Amino acid sequence: MLTHHVLFWLKSDTTEEQKTAFRAGLESLSKVETIKSIYIGTPAPIDRPVVDTTYTFSLVIVFDDLAAHDVYQVHPVHKAFLDEFRVLFERVVIYDAQ
Questions:
Q1: What pairs with residue 63 in β-bridges?
Q2: If you ran DSSP here, which 8-state letter would residue 76 be given?
Q3: Taking the complete model, does pTM exceed 0.85, yes or no?
């Protein structure tokens, strides 16, 4: 199993309409056939020094293995998401674990 966790910080001038479209774009990633499960969220209202709540969206995708992840990375659905929405990214951090 491989877990792909992506944290997105969108630019400060991103509108609510753009955020709604961005979330829909994240949801469209579920069309990639190698994804076992996908979770999309926003920061929970937890106030603890060790919890980072500065990001805009969190994306967690679970794959069966690294090969499934590699298919996702070059999949047309993933590339279309990046082409449409990368202009909104201020920062992106990715954690991959197996």
A1: 2, 35
A2: H
A3: yes
Reported as a single tens digit per residue, the pLDDT across 29-81 is 999 999 999 999 999 999 999 999 999 999 999 999 999 999 999 999 999 99
The residues near 80 (Cβ < 8 Å, ≥ 6 apart) are 28
- Neighbour count for residue 56 (Cβ, 10 Å): 20
The total number of structural domains that make up the chain = 1
Distance between CA atoms of residues 80 and 86, nearest Å: 10
Q: Quick one: which of 1, 15, 7 has its CA closest to 59?
A: 7
Q: Please, are residues 89 and 10 in contact by the beta-carbon 8 Å criterion?
A: yes
Closest to 97 measured CA to CA, from 54, 60, 72, 71: 60
pLDDT reported for residue 4: 98
* CATH at residue 9: 3.30.70.100
Identify the pLDDT of residue 92: 98
